[in-house]
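Recap from last week: sequence in, structure out.
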Amino acid sequence: MRDPLSVLTDAFTSFLFGKVETTRLPVRTSTGQAQAVYLPTAAPGLGDSGVIIGREVYSGKGYIYDPFQLYGQQLPAPHWLVLGESGNGKSALEKTYVLRQLRFRDRQVVVLDAQGEDGVGEWNLIAQELGITPIRLDPMAALDMGIRLNPLDPAITTTGQLALLRTIIEVALGHGLDERSGFALKVAHAYVNETIVDRQPVLTDIVEQLRHPEPESAEAMNVAIDDVRAWGLDVALVLDRLVDGDLRGMFDGPTTVGIDLDAPLIVFDLSHIDRNSIAMPILMAIVGVWLEHTWIRPDRKKRIFLVEEAWHIINSPFVAQLFQRLLKFGRRLGLSFVAVVHHLSDVVDGAAAKEAAAILKMASTRTIYAQKADEARATGRVLGLPRWAVEIIPTLTPGIAVWDVNGNVQVVKHLITETERPLVFTDRAMTQSSADLADDALHAAELEAEERAAAFVEHHLGDSESTVA
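Predicted structure tokens:
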């Protein structure tokens, strides 16, 4: 209780100068009721330069993302990991993202398309719309003079050729080359490059040299010629698969003339290759090194390398190491690597767990679509997601995902324009049910809002290189 003198002093001061302090009685309430006192707030966005992805679910703000604009300020690396079960919108996101990025003049995209229907890859319609012919790697078509990529193409440096040959062999064998086998391969490759000058060397030349090594190669190391031949036998058998086995025709000849590496979009159609066979990681290795030495150049272009079914890369230690080097090298030259994966457990529990962890660490952007609760918890632990984000991942509906951009976590609804819709949903006619049709009718109002967003996109894209796309 206040003393009488203080009360008298306050009363006299109030009489002379008016009331100077308002006294309020304390209020007792719960935290649930008290939170209504605070005005709603929204986390800051990622800026207004880049491509429109959609809108933030909680604030309703437009969500704009571009790794090249954010790199160095909000992103330590421009690489991106997309996770989620089938049917939740991963492919739709990647396709619209590429289409919107290509509206900038300084963008170029390579897609490794491992899925498809009716004999063509999933990206075939988009390639056609842009007037681009996909590079379709098909063993059967290759036998009829189809597309070929030569691992010994002169456009690839000698060091790159040898590294690629080693990777192919190690992927096929499932273990690293020992010193003796590596020596046999090195001398065969060196001899072929030195003696064949009137045409492109091809894998057949390497196989032939491994089977019949030159005496000089044995004398240089003071070993018997039969030893050198024995050391190279396993190597020759692996490479023979690319020459006369189930992968023949795609890599055993000069690179096909007319492959346009300057096109804004380059699509490698791998849909004719068995995704569960050893052929897929071998293909990934060849394409990866071939692109590294022929596509990535210091010409100030911003490049996007998008890989569907990327667990084929990250699940093989030797291919993962190759792509890890590509990511480190490409970052200096403006390369954004985008890996699309169904389940994180496919890679973190695989044979290349160490390499997978290194690649995941370089992906500063992570987009997670709906997953089962146990998978979501595992994903949250590996990626370090906040608890609230992990809890809502199993409840996400198609088209909505959790975006984690270097710790800036938002829930984002992906918006698709009517112009993009027929290019994105290539199997809509085959998969749409009556329930889907009813759902479309219920969302007519939302489509109208999407159209307004589309109009905004079209208005701001133009030919600009720096405004919002």
